[in-house]
From TrEMBL:
Domain Nucleotidyl transferase: from-to ranges: 2-222
UniProt family annotation: In the C-terminal section; belongs to the transferase hexapeptide repeat family.
Name of the protein in question: Nucleotidyltransferase
UniProt entry tagged with the keyword rRNA-binding: no
CDD domains registered for this protein in UniProt: LbH_G1P_TT_C_like (cd05636), NTP_transferase (cd04181)
Length: 400
């Protein structure tokens, strides 16, 4: 059995995280989303093929180059998921197909492998109009309807399939869609008219990582499924409550208080006198200084949060350096759900508490305050004492 991962998407809705890293490389604890998927698939398949963008910056290429034991294919000139799969060429045996921007658990893979025929994993969601909705009869796929105006069903296409090689024949027969892409769902719908495609009604963990706050959601699930361990060094007078994962090379200095679940990645240094609240995720080589408080946030590799700072319900990109006393607010005055700008539209996050989404290599001066739901682009610089009350562009020098 072989597997194909489609990982050529741009990830514009995840900006500013994707200013400096490809969408499939959002962090999952001490790893990344695509590496997590590869590790799951390796238990069941002999070969893994990954479709990546045809044009890559040197910055992006470095991420894909670190993937080992897989074969990379560049997507051709045509856009869309069908075009991405076609770039692999015909596969002469049954294979798994997985979208590279979804998070799921191992049971999803096992569920489709239970079928000798074609199969698709369907999951039930509350917002089906944002996805490809599955119509089925007696667990056999009839059709996938992309983003219908009205919810004809609450089961949607999860992006996990088991196909026989005939799928390539149907890809050859489809035309370009109204979006200017060759859509895999068009080929699947053609196949469903001629061959049985079983629908697996899956109830396990599944998240489409399409919006920034979903990176926090994914890491919370991953941490919940992780066993506690301590491979680091803990000073005297450190208080740890609940499940905590401390990786090799990490140090927790005296007076720090850790309230699990918390993940402390390799070579992180915490404290002294720091407070890590539930669902703090420190991915790798992070420095958390004296009297810092962090809550339900994902801090990417090599980022530093010095003394007297607060980070709540936020995502900080790699190589961020916060000035001392930087405060990230996470709750609106009116206590309504925090909205965030996604591709020019203000979208509700569905979260009462959400701080900032900060791209890589951002620097803030001392005593900076950042309001809830603010996005700060990669390489931006925030002047000392500023109150950040609007989104900050990539590379911008912000002073207020």
């Amino acid at each position: 059995m072989k597997a194909v991962i489609l990982a050529a998407g741009k990830g514009e809705r995840l900006e500013p995280i994707t200013h400096t890293r490809p969408k499939p490389f959002v962090p999952v604890l001490g790893s990344t989303l695509i590496e997590y998927t590869i590790d799951l698939l390796r238990k069941y398949v002999s070969d893994i093929y990954i479709v990546i963008p045809s044009e890559l910056s040197a910055e992006y290429s470095a991420f894909y180059n670190r993937l080992k034991g897989v074969k990379l294919y560049y997507q051709g000139k045509n856009s869309g998921t069908a075009a991405a799969l076609a770039s692999v060429g015909n596969i002469s045996e049954d294979f798994l197909l997985v979208y590279g921007d979804i998070f799921f658990d191992e049971d999803a893979i096992r569920s489709v492998l239970n079928f000798t025929e074609n199969a698709i994993v369907g999951v039930k969601v509350n917002n089906p109009t944002e996805y490809g909705v599955i119509l089925m009869k007696n667990s056999i796929l009839e059709k996938i309807i992309e983003k219908p105006m009205e919810p004809v069903s609450y089961f949607i296409n999860s992006g996990i399939y088991k196909f026989n090689p005939d799928i390539f024949t149907y890809i050859d027969k489809i035309s370009i869609s109204s979006r200017g892409e060759y859509e895999l769902t068009d080929a699947v719908n053609l196949m469903a008219k001629n061959e049985k495609i079983f629908v697996v009604q899956y109830k396990g963990s599944w998240i489409d990582v399409g919006r920034p706050w979903q990176v926090i959601d994914v890491n919370k699930i991953a941490l919940d499924n992780k066993e506690p361990k301590n491979l680091g060094e803990i000073d005297d007078n450190v208080k740890i409550i609940g499940k905590v994962v401390i990786e090799e090379g990490a140090k927790v200095l005296h007076g720090s208080y850790i309230q699990g679940p918390v993940y402390i990645g390799k070579d992180c240094i915490i404290g002294p006198n720091s407070y890590l609240r539930p669902y703090t995720i420190l991915t790798q080589n992070n420095k958390v200084g004296a009297s810092v408080e962090i809550k339900e946030s994902v801090i990417m590799e090599n980022s530093k949060i010095p003394h007297l700072s607060y980070v709540g319900d936020s995502i900080l990109g790699e190589n961020v350096n916060l000035g001392a006393g930087t405060l990230i607010a996470n709750l609106r005055f009116d206590e309504q759900n925090v909205k965030i700008n996604i591709k020019g539209n203000k979208i509700s996050s569905g979260r009462k508490k959400l701080g900032t989404i900060m791209g890589g290599y951002v620097k803030t001066g001392i005593n900076v305050s950042i309001l809830p739901g603010i996005k700060i682009g990669a390489y931006a610089t925030i002047y000392p004492g500023s109150i950040v009350n609007r989104d900050v562009n990539k590379g911008e020098f912000y002073k207020n």
